[in-house]
TrEMBL record:
Catalyzes the specific phosphorylation of the 3-hydroxyl group of shikimic acid using ATP as a cosubstrate. This is Shikimate kinase. It comes from Diaphorobacter nitroreducens. Gene3D superfamilies: P-loop containing nucleotide triphosphate hydrolases (3.40.50.300). It holds the Pfam family SKI.
């Protein structure tokens, strides 16, 4: 059976960067859930949030995730940071992907990486670090529930992280 691997974790934990390189090394298609959603919605996630709200976005996210989980063949999937919020999505991930990896990073590490990024709607607040800490507190258990493995992203380079993941496959 071909490898099916999904990456979960906080915004800024490196899911897309690591996922793209992992897919290249494995010779598998790389699917970025957020990018696919933007294609489907015909607008950026940020604008979609602004116009339709988070709940409508989550419905589209759940529908696309279920489609991808049911699609046969090898792939590396990078999910959006909130894809684990719904219990159904966590079950869909585990069912559809035998290798779900949680890329764990502390809120402080993430803040350093993405403090200048204006494309992430959930971080457009006065105190993004406090927001990241709240998100982390609420979501860390959900990422752990969805994932089969936890990959600590603190120090290693992207190349090393890809090697760490490949050792688990
Ligand atoms: C979200 C994270 C984003 C994107 C949307 C919501 C979240 O993806 O799906 O803005 O709830 O954490 P990234 O994790 O790729 O930033």
């Amino acid at each position: 059976m071909q490898t099916r691997c999904a990456l979960v974790g906080m915004p800024g934990s490196g899911k897309s960067t690591v996922g793209r390189q992992l897919a290249r090394r494995l010779g598998l298609p790389f699917v970025d859930l957020d990018q696919r959603l933007e294609q489907r919605l015909g607008t950026s996630i940020r604008d979609y949030f602004d116009q339709h709200g988070e709940a409508a976005f989550r419905d589209h996210e759940a529908a696309l995730l279920a489609e991808l989980a049911a699609q046969p063949g090898g792939m590396v999937l990078s999910t959006g940071g909130g894809a684990v919020l719904r219990e159904d999505n966590r079950a869909t991930l585990r069912r559809g992907f035998p290798h779900v990896m949680y890329l764990r990073a502390s809120p402080e590490e993430i803040f350093k990486r993405i403090k200048h990024d204006r494309t992430r709607p959930l971080l457009q607040v006065d105190d993004p670090l406090a927001r990241l800490r709240d998100l982390y507190r609420a979501r860390d258990p959900l990422y752990r529930e969805a994932a089969h493995y936890v990959i600590e992203t603190g120090r290693p380079t992207v190349h090393t992280l890809v090697n760490m993941i490949m050792m688990q496959l």
